[in-house]
Amino acid sequence: MIEFYTMFYINMMIMKKFFLLVFCTTFTLVSCQNDETEVNGISNEMTEPQIEISLPAVEQAQSRANTVNPVTEWENGDKIGLYAVDQGTLTTYRGAQPNLCYKFSKSERKWDFDVTADTKKPKQLFLHSGNAVLYAFSPWDKVAEDLTATPMKFNTNVDYLYGTHRVAPLYVNNQQTSIKLEMLHAQTYVAVRLKRSVDHPYNEDGVVTSLKITGNTPANQAAAYVKGSYPATGTLNLTKGAINTTGATRGDIVVSGFSSGITIPALSGATAPATSIFYAMIAPEAASVRKGFQLVVDGKTHFVPISECEWKAGYKYIYTLTITGKGIEGGDEVDPNNPNDHSGDALVIRPWANGVNEDYNF
Fold first, then answer.
1. Which segments of the chain does DSSP mark as H helices, in order?
2. Whole-angstrom Cα distance, residue 143 to residue 337?
3. Structure confidence at residue 11 (pLDDT)
4. Which pTM value belongs to this model?
5. Which of 28, 39, 53, 95 has CB atoms 3.0–4.6 Å from 129's, for a disulfide?
6. Burial call 126-160: b when 16+ CB within 10 Å, e when fewer
7. d(Cα 311, Cα 288) in Å, to the nearest integer?
């Protein structure tokens, strides 16, 4: 009898140890599973971001690759490069790759990962519990890899845009998946309005075969041609909007569209003269940088100086040049019927993002 109870006791102890072992093992597995799916009680499940990308307000982006008509919305097939970094750092977000290509679907009004754009980057962006900050660049460039040095080519009729979170929340994660990235213009927009004088008529054909932005200044306007020092290329830091042109090839900016000659519209009776407008999108320049225009009109070369003025990114600098019987002058003649109209001032500065005008004269 004693032997029976002894064996029963031993068996019960073995069973208790077995159940305790099973319980502990199960608990350990559950804990491990929680470690994989939760961080500080927050789900670590991977989800896709829901991205909205807005163009600069009111005037919108003009010609990402088209300089004829203003583009007021994203078009089907437009592509942006997307970068994701850990919030507060420039470290690539876990599981992400730099410069992922996302393509716009106009019918669905959304951005989708373009798996065919770069076969070396087959994985789209997925969000986990960690906070990510997103940066976008338009148009997408396959060779770009560094969000602090995205390559650019100036005066190519491409409106480079960059954007990030500008309204809270300033991050995304698998709990906060919807985000709006607001794009800004990276370049300066320089426009030239050409017209004929009413008060001092120019009676020649008025055929312009060349228009350049050069290095001429008021101090040497009577001197010979001074070559410009404008960069042809540069890189953009998406986190700051700063452009680096160190080591770039420099020279004049040759405004396109004059290879076959452009005729400045002739006067039509007593009506206001028509205007021809040409422009270039270039790197921002300090006020101290020499600036001027060189025009070839009816075979004769003219130099027009530009007063010191900083060319800032995201602004339009609209210069009016009037050809007269004496030469070319900056600015338009005052319309006696509308003396408060400053649209023909020698220089009109206009924020590229809206229609507010600032007027400056030479």
1. 2-37
2. 55
3. 53
4. 0.78
5. 39
6. bbbbbbbbbbbbbebbeebeebeebebebbbbbbb
7. 10
Nearest C-alpha neighbor of 110 from the set 48, 172, 60: 48
% pLDDT > 90, the chain: 38
Cα–Cα dist 126/148, whole Å: 22
**Where would I find the H helices in 181-321?**
none
Strands in 233-237's sheet, in edge-to-edge order, are 150-153, 233-237, 242-244
Looking at 104-147, list the stretches that DSSP marks H as alpha helix, in order from N- to C-terminal side.
none
Fill in the DSSP letter of residue 145.
-
The structure tokens listed for 249 are 């090839």
DSSP 311: B
> For residue 267, what are the CA distances in angstroms to 221, 273, 318, 343?
29, 5, 22, 19
Which stretches of the chain score pLDDT less than 50?
2, 4-10, 14-36, 39-42, 58-71, 218, 220-221, 270, 336, 342, 354-362
> Which residue's entry shows tokens 């809206």?
354
Residue written as tokens 């569209």? 257
**CA atoms in the 13 A half-sphere facing the CB of 149:** 6
pLDDT the model gives residue 329:
85
Separation CA 357–CA 359 (nearest Å) = 6
Q: What confidence score (pLDDT) does residue 86 get?
A: 96
Residue type at 7? Answer: M
CA distance 286 to 32: 59
In sequence order, what are the residues at sequence separation of 6 or more whose Cβ sits closer than 8 angstroms to the Cβ of residue 63?
A: 69, 70, 71, 157, 158, 159
Which pLDDT does position 198 carry in this prediction? Answer: 82
Sign of the alpha-carbon dihedral angle for 142, 147, 153, 155 = positive
The one-letter amino acid at 109: R
- What pLDDT, on a 0 to 100 scale, did the predictor assign at position 60? 45
Q: What are phi and psi of 318, to 5 degrees?
A: -105, 110
Q: Which amino acid is at 128?
A: H
Position of tokens 């404008």? Answer: 230
3-state DSSP percent of the chain in helix, strand and coil, to 5: 10, 35, 55
C-alpha to C-alpha distance for 325 and 314, rounded to whole angstroms = 36
Tokens of residue 224, six digits: 């010979």
Interatomic CA distance for residues 325 and 202, integer angstroms: 4
